[in-house]
Design brief:
By secondary structure, this protein is mainly alpha-helical. The protein has 21 helices and no strands.
């Protein structure tokens, strides 16, 4: 691939995003289900690519017919297939840059019940998935045991995480796992909104909430909330001063300045990953059980961003970075990531494993519903619906889905749900939902076997369930 081809493929992706945004604004159905423009653009790319248009033309006119490879040259889809693994690093590197990072005690005081609830759902998704793999997916359908991680990767992690694990799937010879994870992520996004809206309507009829439809949260709101910023709740709004220490445009453009810090976070993450790989090789190379070498870069890029922000805060430069510009850079990367991931989705792989796909999607959805209906009221007490619906949306789709459902159920912001949902991410995302364990799950299952990981995740699920029911449940009762 030449530089011109790479640039042309990026331009085509951006044009698809514009078309997707236009269609989304014109379609009542897309607006009602809060489908982001990037998802619409990805579907357009998929329909016009080799998996749909190309396959149809080939079936009718043969492999030599015009458009047999779709509306795009083959090199376009090759570029797009490499984009998610790159862009996910940009998204995670900036996740906490320019954001106030409160102390652990404050986070636990405000968001403890939601931390316990989110952790219960995430670890339980591994339990459900691994149990399915051991009982059905591997002995009946011949899928590897690593398929037990697909529910958490696709539902909790979402399109970005699934696409970011492309190399991991390839390294372990489970290329179809990527397409299954992306398919689960798509089902999760749609299911989160459809089922979530049904739950909101049920709660409204029962008088639990007073919902109203609001415009969908944009990427900026999603990522700011994910970083724990909520001015109304904790007085942490830096907007009036954000970026006031940045050099002027005559020195360097603000976007370029922020991009440099994101690049620095990725570099720090890469150095940390390389150091851990050296340590692993030195200590465990003879055992043949190597995990770190298969872990992707993006969770370490997130740690690099946290390290940079902590240093800036400790040195009195916490207002150096304008969070709004960080979010803009992340938003571009996230839009390109989702568009490219969906456009290069393999429908053949999903069709080849249709019944495993249906089982995984059904079991994952059932677990999330059980947690919301049964556990959320017992964990969180008052405002349980508003706080629980945000985690339900995130656990099935992505952070955006959770925020959308929260805005519908609590448009006036009367509950503490937004603040606690934001703070929860600081004790959640570094581990699961696209964090370190999510990234290492497949190498761990392959390296240590599914039974050990099933026991570990079951113990963690039971632990967080105990924290939610016994610790926070008793506090609620008193």
């Amino acid at each position: 691939m030449t530089a011109i081809q790479t640039g042309a493929a990026l331009i085509l992706a951006l044009i698809l995003l514009l078309i997707g945004a236009w269609l989304r604004s014109r379609s009542r159905t897309l607006t009602k289900v809060f489908a982001p423009a990037s998802l619409v653009a990805g579907v357009l790319g998929l329909l016009a690519g080799p998996e749909v248009l190309g396959a149809l033309v080939t079936a009718l006119g043969g492999a030599e017919a015009p458009l047999a490879t779709g509306a795009f040259p083959a090199w376009v889809t090759r570029v797009w297939s490499n984009l998610p693994g790159l862009m996910i690093n940009v998204v995670f590197a900036g996740l906490f840059l320019g954001a106030a990072i409160p102390g652990p005690r404050r986070i636990w005081r405000l968001a403890g019940p939601q931390v316990a609830f989110g952790q219960t759902i995430a670890w339980g998704q591994y339990v459900v998935g691994l149990a399915l793999a051991l009982a059905v997916l591997t002995p009946v359908f011949g899928l590897p045991y690593a398929s037990g991680a697909l529910i958490e990767i696709g539902f909790e992690g979402g399109h970005g995480t699934a696409a970011g694990l492309t190399e991991v799937f390839s390294n372990f010879g489970f290329e179809d796992g990527l397409d299954l994870a992306l398919g689960l992520a798509t089902v999760g996004v749609v299911g989160a909104v459809v089922i979530g809206m049904a739950l909101v309507n049920w709660a409204a009829r029962r008088g639990h909430i007073q919902p109203t439809l609001e415009p969908a949260a944009d990427v900026g709101e999603v990522l700011v909330a994910s970083s724990g910023i909520d001015a109304a709740a904790e007085g942490l709004d830096r907007d009036p001063a954000q970026g006031r220490l940045m050099p002027g445009a005559e020195v360097i453009e603000p976007m370029t300045f922020i991009a440099g810090f994101i690049g620095g976070a990725i570099l720090l993450g890469w150095l940390l990953l390389q150091a851990l790989m050296l340590i692993e090789n030195a200590l465990w190379a003879d055992t043949g059980v190597l995990i770190i070498r298969y872990v992707p870069l993006f969770p370490f890029a997130m740690l690099g961003g946290i390290a940079i922000q902590v240093v800036l805060d400790r040195t009195g430069k916490g207002e150096l970075l304008d969070r709004r510009i960080v979010v803009a850079v992340q938003g571009l990367a996230l839009d390109l990531l989702i568009t490219a991931a969906i456009a290069t989705l393999s429908l053949v792989a999903i069709g080849r494993h249709l019944w495993p796909f249906v089982l995984l999607a059904s079991a994952g959805t059932a677990w999330c519903l059980f947690c919301f209906i049964v556990l959320a009221p017992r964990y969180m007490g008052r405002w349980w619906f508003e706080r629980g619906i945000a985690d339900f949306g995130q656990s099935m789709g992505m952070t955006a889905s959770g925020l959308l459902l929260l805005r519908v159920s609590d448009p006036a912001g009367r509950s503490p749900a937004l603040a606690s949902f934001g703070y929860k991410q600081l004790l959640f995302e570094p581990v699961v939902g696209g964090g370190l364990f999510t990234a290492a799950a497949i190498p761990l299952i392959v390296g240590f076997g599914p039974w050990l990981i099933l026991v570990l995740t079951t113990a963690l699920t039971a632990f967080w369930m105990g924290v939610g029911l016994l610790y926070f449940g008793r506090q609620r009762g008193s």
